[in-house]
Specification:
The protein is mostly beta strands and 120 residues long. The chain has one domain: Rieske [2Fe-2S] iron-sulphur domain (Rieske Iron-sulfur Protein). The protein is 0% helix and 40% strand. The protein starts with a strand and ends with a strand.
Length: 120
């Protein structure tokens, strides 16, 4: 299965609002998001490791006020944007689920061959 084009590179600004999308793995559909942190694009399943709720409450704001951490709007768990690892709060050492993405020729691609993009 080929890589799936998600969006233009310009749609994901450094430290800005996350670009949300939906994926399907088997029968399970989940929301995911793209961020750009320190110039590198990263993607995660949009689900707090503490309790399975979306980090951003559906608005794409996943960075804390400092721009140094991803934060769960519900419980305040914080994660390292570079790797999704738990940095504090109720995530208790559990990190976010990362997704493989790449950036090429002005576009961002999902490189998870066992997942499908859900068109909504």
């Amino acid at each position: 299965m080929a890589d799936v084009k998600l969006c233009d590179s310009a749609a994901v600004e450094n430290g800005g609002v996350a670009w949300r999308f939906r994926v399907k793995q088997g029968r399970r559909k989940r929301t995911a998001f793209l961020i750009r942190y320190q110039g590198t694009v990263r993607a995660y399943i949009n689900e707090c490791a503490h309790t399975p709720v979306e980090l951003d409450m559906d608005d794409g704001r996943v960075f804390d006020e400092t721009g140094r951490f991803l934060i769960c709007a519900t419980h305040g768990a914080t994660y390292d944007p570079a790797d999704g690892s738990c940095q504090g709060g109720p995530c208790d050492g559990r990190g976010l689920i990362s997704l493989a993405v790449s950036e090429k020729d002005g576009y961002i691609y999902l490189n998870e061959h066992n997942m499908k993009l859900v068109e909504e």
